[in-house]
């Protein structure tokens, strides 16, 4: 028997990285030496104090709740540490009902959509952008209106580009700074404008701050909740994945508007039953040591960023060094006339290097490609030599 797919699955765009994985596997099976710089998934280990806390708590026989559902037996320390971290890091005071622990932001984005969107509702998302906002909308039979991000506007979403019909129809608007894939950063004035837009149009502003802790050269990304009155119209999706090298651990939080936080909790209580307590203890430890742990991680990405950007500049393709994220977003070499797909294909075929073509993030990502810095220095170095050689040939 062949089971027919549900419409919501049939309607999904192909998962960008699934297609990529298959191509790479085929090339490798054929004996090719392929270097992938495609995926943003930290390659070096989670810091020891976090691992130690996981091991301690999972073995703690005195904790009679250690095996239990994370929602029925939540770790109060985790919620406390989220509040304490937001206070120290951003000067933001959160009330108990403004915090919900999550199993990472990807999961939380979709569940959050299920908590607030009805069929036919409209959500606004940036293009190029992280695909999961649209996936959340699609699973709720809601529609996505895409707002283009332009290089000339430093890839900051221009609220004036959103037509009035869309403003009237939309229930939620997603933004993401520091941005994946463009590496753009936003200042507090941008977030003020976002809050104003949400207030004027009665639209919830959802800020995905997955890269807030991945920054360099003294830059510190702000939280949207630093804006006065932000919690009236905004929520923020914070994640430990990228900032603490914890992608596989699945932990983060949603903070901000209490009714929105409640909508997410309602879905979670009925679907996932929460994160293992030991992971919550470890996440609490990570946040409590953030000031000590994240600079060491960022040192590695900064070194790699400099190496990649310097190699591009030496080849005659200068890029401004990104202040944040774990990526470099570079213009496609001239000889490919702006076609990121043609460049990506040639790179894989002739040089054995995988990058993410900007086109994969939508039409307005065209002309660029993304290099992920989550690969060892020597691998990155070899890949850059190959990229430069091909682009120059
Ligand atoms: C990686 C990433 C996420 C997902 O992070 P998890 O917390 O691991 O699910 C969310 N948003 C953006 C923009 C990302 O790049």
Summarize this structure as a short list of keywords or feature phrases.
2 domains, Aspartate Aminotransferase, domain 2, Aspartate Aminotransferase, domain 1, single chain, binds pyridoxal-5'-phosphate, 393 residues, 13 helices, 12 strands
Specify the helix fraction band.
40-55%
Structural class: alpha/beta
How can the largest sheet be summarized?
7 strands, mixed
SSE order? HHEHHEHEHEHEHEEEHHHEHEEEH
Low-pLDDT stretches are none
Task: Offer a concise description of the structure.
The protein has 13 helices and twelve strands. It has helices at 7-10, 16-29, 48-59, 76-90, 105-116, 132-139, 164-169, 188-201, 258-271, 277-288, 290-314, 340-351, 377-392, and strands at residues 35-36, 99-102, 122-127, 143-148, 170-175, 204-208, 234-239, 252-256, 327-331, 353-354, 356-357, 368-372. Helix 4 (76-90) runs parallel beside helix 10.
Structure description:
- It contains 13 helices and 12 strands.
- The protein is an alpha/beta fold and 393 residues long.
- The strands form 3 sheets. Strands 2-8-7-6-5-3-4 form a 7-stranded mixed β-sheet, sandwiched between helices.
- The longest helix has 25 residues, at 290-314.
- Bound molecules: pyridoxal-5'-phosphate.
- Pyridoxal-5'-phosphate (PLP) is lined by residues 40, 104-106, 130, 176, 180, 208, 210, 239, 241-242, 247, 252.
